[in-house]
From TrEMBL:
Region (Disordered): 80-128
Alphabetical list of PROSITE patterns matching this protein: BTB
Name the record gives this protein: BTB domain-containing protein
Low complexity bias locations: 88-99
BTB domain span: 17-84
InterPro entries in alphabetical order: BTB/POZ_dom, SKP1/BTB/POZ_sf
Biased composition (Polar residues): 113-127
Gene3D superfamilies in the cross-refs: Potassium Channel Kv1.1, Chain A
Organism in which the protein naturally occurs: Thyridium curvatum
Amino acid sequence: MSPEEVLLKLLNSGGLSDLQFSCKDVKVKVHKAIVCIQSPVIRTALQGNFKEAASRVIDMDSFDPDVVRRFTEFLYTGDYEEFPAPDTPKAGPAAATTKPEGDGEDQDKDSANEISSSNESVASGDSSDAEHIVSRHLLMNSIGDYYAVQDLVDLANAKTQSLLSNSVFSVSALLSLGETAVKVTGDKDVLDIIAKATGRVLALAGDAESEVDIDADPEIDIMARHEDLLSYFGLRLLASCRREYRIRKDSTDHEQWEDRRAIQQYENRIAMHDRAVMNLLNAKQCRNQGCDPPYSFMIHPQKGEVICRRCRWVFDLCC
Ligand SMILES: [Zn+2]
């Protein structure tokens, strides 16, 4: 047997297990040696006076059972099964880890953790399906981030990146995914990935000859605290739009008289985005005298505007 087959057999049989992942009615038998070498968070929980050290159970109730199952699969195989599109019936092996409460103590039962080693690819033709699947990869990022398994965070991000590159997403879907990412993970890399994809669509929609429609007002709420992840996402969005305009400007022929106007327009947009970044970094309170705290702000990444959420005051660096 190859080392990979040995690990898969260990996982699927649950044999020699000395630790359990518990998520609602799913109990997965795992092995400390394999888990702890990859997750410093779980390793710490199993040392000292934490309750997990005595119970040998890691409570994962705050995650979805499907996410915990794939988390476990990743720890043993370095990959996880693709998520099915919504309303697709679960594959047979997926149900095998679901065991009723109280049936997880039998160490000798074979196939306790039966997990499919095959990765079914998901057709990504339908954009709402693709959006749903990206949101699941964000949850894989989330559990990887929570237990400090960086390789899982990176893998989930690669899958997210691939879906964002190969499917057409609306701006509202991308912004919604960005806001989801802010809520579920502390990982900034995935915010960069989503911000870049959003910038591409926003800039495309701004092209004169483009037929891309923006399906919603592409504003995003940015809270007043500059250090928070939503503000970070907003800054990355502005940077992403700016980069798209820069690419368009650089690829425009400087010799052609009619193109000089286009170049000037791109330069204006780039300058607006630079101002918006400065405004966002400096926006501690609304500059409209009639406005009251608490202040929070929105950005319009396409226009490069920072807007007071309360009074709709549009910030300008000169004020
Ligand atoms: Zn205001």
